[in-house]
Amino acid sequence: MTDRYDRQSFLGARAQEAIATARVGIVGLGGGGSHLVQQLAHLGFSHYVLYDPDQVEESNLNRLVGATQTDALEHRPKLAVAERVLRALLPEVEIDAFAVRWQDHPLPLRSCDVIVGGLDSLLDRSELEVCARRFLVPYIDIGLGVRRIAPEPPRMSGQIVLSMPGYPCFRCIGFLNEEDLAAEARLYGDAGPRPQVVWANGLLASIATGLVVDLVTDWTESLRAPVYLTYDANSGVVLPHPRLRYAVNRACVHFPDDDIGEPTFTPL
Predict the structure, then answer these.
(1) CB atoms within 10 A of CB 139
(2) Which run of H or E residues covers position 38?
(3) Mean of pLDDT values over 48-63
(4) The pTM is what?
């Protein structure tokens, strides 16, 4: 009988063992996160830490992989949909699921080998990177947005960004900056619904899945630095962001090598 994973044996002699034992954190199980759950399960990833406080709504069904009309009618938790997808492929899968914001219960993330975030806000991304950096966990961010500048057609774009401990961080490579964080804070509550579509979320999640596999198996023997990819959905092109070339050889000044573990407080 052919083994389920024979066709991915090119990843390495012990790659499947590494995949089966790796612990993956996924923060946000919406359009991008649901794709990640499905793809990682097909690959054989068997240990998960999942976060999402939301329930399935009708407006989610255009992009939430695994969700059904019944899930929306019954307001089923997105966590339950993710667990159903995982157990359909991997009955013995190990899942630690939390229907809260990750900030309310971050401890399980410390045991992860890699974290992937599909978050809406820059502040959430910044806070999750701090958590990941403190405990030396690679963190992959995916995100999608649409800009409308009349009379041009809407422009849809996204990013896949990897923050690697010991290498330049999101601020070093220009993905996050204080001006954008401050602008987001001023608009808090006024952003409205964010446009999302299943094919663009799927593309971003697929690339992120490839990065997870590379981090766990080292099959390319080349993933040693941050990744900052941009997706132009209007032209269907994914390219490295130009900012990356100016930061890749610089030491990170935002996360010193000794700034790890539990934060400590010194009385003044």
Answers:
(1) 26
(2) helix 31-43
(3) 97
(4) 0.93
